[in-house]
Amino acid sequence: MPASSASIINTSIFILTGFPGLDHYYPWFSIPFSSIYAMVFLGNCVVLHVIRTEPSLHQPMFYFLAMLALTDLCMGLSTVHTVLGVLWGLNQEVSRDACIAQTYFIHGLSFIESGVLLAMAFDRFTAICNPLRYTSLLTNSRVIHFMVAILMRAALSILPVIIRLKFFHYCRPHILSHSFCLHQDLLRLACSDIRFNSLYALALVICTLLLDAVLILISYVFILHTVLAIASHKERLKSLQTCVSHICAVLVFYIPIIGLTMVHRFGKHLSPSVRVLMGNIYILFPPLMNPIIYSVKTQQIRSRMKKWCSLKM
């Protein structure tokens, strides 16, 4: 066996993949990727700062938005060093422990984001379908309980499969499909019994991401039913407009996940670069788009940012 092949078998080092066959374009690819990461950090920090400094935004909907922005910020921080490390030619290797830790954060943050989107759907459902009880149902203490429950669900539910990754025997070449680590990618390299991880991960996705999506859909069925019962066309539009940002955020989160799943399961004939591109969209698109969506569609945030711009001018 050649030494180069032996170096990626039975070692504690994994090799990250950029865009296969396009290595000479990495300096050019690094420019848009660096810009996207800069926008992710700047956009989410601005949203957090606006919510923190504007007293009128100290209400449940914006508390959940702050948690969403913080989650997106953490997603960017958890992947920036490996993605840009590959594109800048700094390092394509990652230790097994660092890879498993990154896997934990990526999947855990995805579950947190799904939970926050569900909580925001409940906020919109309460505000539109039961407005008289909104303040009594969504008190500050209850919002904190929701946030803690979302964090605990994500942090603890994923631990069993993450811990098992540490004890797997990885006998296949340690070449990952992306410039970051994913659970399904590590399972592909393992020669140990992965049935528990596969079944548990499937059950976890069904009980979290899929269930959250179904509950969000049900909440909007009730919202739509309530809105259509409003006599005034203007009031109907006004009620629906308060949901536009959240609907966009839901689509921005779930469409890349579905796309990446389809590519991994049914896109075996596709170029590896397509899988890499879909993986990066899954990681970067929601954190990039959410601050833009809420800055454009949320009147309170938009007016606050306009006020800042006018003061600076």
From TrEMBL:
Short name of one Pfam family: 7tm_4
One term of GO molecular function: olfactory receptor activity
GO biological process, one term: cellular response to lipid
Annotated Gene3D superfamilies: Rhodopsin 7-helix transmembrane proteins
Highest taxon of the lineage: Eukaryota
A GO cellular-component term linked to this record: plasma membrane
Primary location recorded for the protein, binned into one broad class: membrane
Record bears the keyword Transmembrane helix: yes
Subcellular location: Cell membrane; Membrane
Membrane topology: Multi-pass membrane protein
Membrane-spanning intervals of the chain: 25-50, 62-84, 104-122, 143-163, 199-231, 243-264, 276-296
G-protein coupled receptors family 1 profile domain: residues covered: 43-294
Keywords: Cell membrane, G-protein coupled receptor, Membrane, Olfaction, Receptor, Sensory transduction, Transducer, Transmembrane, Transmembrane helix
Purpose: Putative odorant or sperm cell receptor.
Similarity comment text for this entry: Belongs to the G-protein coupled receptor 1 family.
The protein's name in its UniProt record: Olfactory receptor
Source organism per UniProt: Acinonyx jubatus
